[in-house]
């Protein structure tokens, strides 16, 4: 068991970012719901209380009993967490006359504890409408801004701190130093949780867990399932049976390319061309949710048929990663709204009696890539853009037909290959083309055309939760537009999507 930092989540949009910053120090950490404070966790070295959309002044806001951790472990409250500490132990929190959202400057601060090594003034990121107006009797202020007197405080004689700014956010210039001071110095963590150690320990754990059984894994060609497959392969070799289903909605030539790349990695893989079954299931369906559910249903049917051919299969391998685990738990006790369903999320039918093994469930996406690099996996595979499970089925707005898939595959190939040829691919988090249910008038030669319009979509992001549209060079966009119109029969108009998330999602459906 590695030294662990526990993060208690009060519903902040930044909670996962706290964890990722700590993992960057090679320190293991876990996110737990706020209502689990006090439960035993082996090797816990310190605790962080996250921010929250709530106000501590609200009667319905989370107010756990902190006595199980305060004074017993180093403790850092961030934003709501700081205000909770202050209010719980005799301080006062009031609505601010001057609210702080966005950049602010720490003007003065101590040069010890969690603020050791900072250069003042230093920029921090604020996001609060309340402020601590009075500290608890045994606490002292350690930093301030022009608008907030108690931007940070410490309980005297304790390793208990609170800051009203967000050190985990990139815009806090010295935020990483603050977190390092807490995690490495106050908590005494040594930073021994590295990719190489994770691979070694995971392989040993998988061997012990699976024993002599076989594992079935549905490969998608993406980063998560590929890295999960390699970990399992290292543990059990050919007893890992990988199945790659061609749903007819992959990118141009992707089915064969992915099969070839996996076989070069030594994986035991079977490719199944089920494209006609998916096309049949999608006939007449134009609603996005109906299409997703149809794709998911056929995927399960095909996967079940192929799985039944594998002898001694007792386990289902999945590429589940830590954000999936976190988001399956409602940190604030309320249900989350379904934005869109995922084609392979929700479990298998009861008649598939398989236990689940998820070797990546403790990792964030960037850590998955680091693990892949530690296993010397092909960089081209590890740096692949995310691609939706339903594939081009949700990039064709309206009913899906083989002809529409052909048109979109050609346009998508020109766009993605163009990004690679111009050295832009790795500056983009995700890119693709959307076939619109719109025909427009055009002129080609001396003839009038009435053909399809497409939208190019390229975004930058760290985790897909938020995204900004990419400012691709005009010359590049002009070249891609010209190639698509000239080379793809059926398209006479190309547009570029300049919407960010939120409010727009990355995919159109």
List the helices and strands and how they pair.
Elements: E1 4-9, H1 15-23, E2 28-33, E3 44-49, E4 75-78, H2 80-88, E5 92-109, E6 122-134, E7 139-145, E8 152-155, E9 160-163, H3 175-186, H4 195-210, E10 214-219, H5 223-236, E11 240-246, H6 254-264, E12 269-273, H7 275-282, H8 288-307, E13 313-317, H9 322-327, E14 355-357, H10 365-374, H11 379-382, H12 402-421, E15 430-444, E16 447-460, E17 468-469, H13 474-487, E18 491-496
Parallel strand pairs: 1-2, 1-3, 3-4, 4-9, 10-11, 10-13, 11-12, 13-14, 16-18
Antiparallel strand pairs: 5-6, 5-7, 7-8, 8-9, 15-16, 16-17
Helix pairs in contact: 4-5, 4-10, 5-10, 7-8, 12-13
Task: For the structure shown, list the relevant keywords.
single chain, alpha/beta, 13 helices
Average predicted confidence as pLDDT = 88
Q: pLDDT below 50 for ≥5 consecutive residues: which ranges?
A: 330-347
User: How would you describe the shape?
Assistant: globular
Number of helices: 13
Counting helices, strands and paired strands, the structural category is alpha/beta
Radius of gyration: 26 Å
Strand content: 25-35%
How far apart the termini lie comes to 42 Å
- The helix fraction, in percent, is 25-40%
Spatial strand arrangement across the major sheet: 2-1-3-4-9-8-7-5-6
Q: How many extended strands?
A: 18
């Amino acid at each position: 068991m590695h030294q662990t930092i526990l993060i208690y989540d009060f519903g902040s949009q930044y909670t996962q970012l706290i964890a990722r910053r700590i993992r960057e120090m090679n320190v293991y950490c876990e996110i737990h719901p706020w209502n689990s404070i006090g439960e035993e966790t082996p090797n816990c070295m310190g605790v962080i209380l996250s921010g929250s959309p709530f106000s501590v002044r609200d009667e319905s806001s989370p107010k756990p009993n902190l006595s199980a951790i305060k004074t017993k472990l180093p403790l850092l409250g961030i934003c709501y967490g700081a205000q909770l500490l202050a209010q719980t132990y005799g301080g006062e929190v009031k609505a601010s006359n001057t609210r702080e959202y966005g950049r602010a400057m720490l003007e003065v601060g101590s040069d010890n504890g969690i603020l050791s090594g900072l250069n003042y003034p230093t920029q921090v990121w604020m996001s609060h409408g309340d402020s601590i107006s009075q500290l608890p009797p045994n606490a002292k202020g350690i930093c301030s801004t022009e608008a907030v007197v108690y931007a940070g405080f410490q309980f005297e004689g304790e390793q208990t701190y609170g800051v009203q700014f967000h050190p985990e956010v990139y815009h806090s210039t010295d935020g990483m130093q603050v977190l390092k001071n807490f995690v490495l110095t106050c908590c005494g963590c040594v930073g021994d949780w590295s990719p190489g150690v994770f691979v070694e320990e995971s392989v040993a754990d998988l061997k012990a867990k699976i024993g002599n059984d076989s594992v079935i894994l549905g490969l998608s060609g993406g980063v998560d399932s590929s890295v999960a497959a390699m970990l399992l392969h290292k543990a059990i070799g050919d007893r890992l049976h990988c199945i790659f289903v061609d749903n007819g909605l992959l990118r141009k030539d992707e089915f064969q390319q992915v099969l070839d790349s996996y076989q070069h990695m030594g994986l035991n893989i079977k490719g199944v061309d089920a494209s006609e079954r998916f096309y049949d299931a999608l006939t007449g369906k134009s609603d996005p949710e109906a299409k997703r559910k149809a794709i998911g249903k056929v995927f399960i049917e095909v996967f079940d048929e192929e799985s039944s051919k594998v002898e001694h299969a007792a386990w289902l391998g999945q590429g589940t990663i830590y954000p999936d685990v976190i988001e399956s738990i409602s940190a604030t006790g309320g249900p989350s709204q379904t934005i869109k369903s995922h084609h392979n999320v929700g479990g298998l039918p009861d008649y598939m009696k398989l236990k689940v093994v998820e070797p990546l469930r403790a990792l964030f996406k960037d850590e998955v890539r680091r693990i892949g690099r530690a296993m010397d996996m092909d960089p081209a595979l590890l740096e692949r853009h995310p691609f939706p499970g339903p594939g081009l089925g949700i990039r064709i707005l309206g009913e899906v037909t083989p002809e529409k898939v052909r048109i979109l595959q050609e346009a998508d190939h020109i766009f993605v290959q163009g990004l690679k040829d111009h050295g832009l691919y790795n500056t983009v988090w995700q890119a693709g083309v959307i076939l619109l249910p719109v025909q427009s008038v055009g002129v080609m030669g001396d003839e009038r055309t009435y053909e399809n319009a497409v939208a190019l979509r390229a975004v930058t992001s760290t985790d897909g939760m938020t995204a900004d549209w990419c400012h691709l060079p005009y010359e590049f966009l002009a070249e891609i537009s010209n190639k698509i119109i000239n080379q793809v029969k059926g398209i006479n108009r190309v547009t570029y999507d300049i919407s960010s998330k939120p409010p727009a999602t990355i995919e159109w459906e």
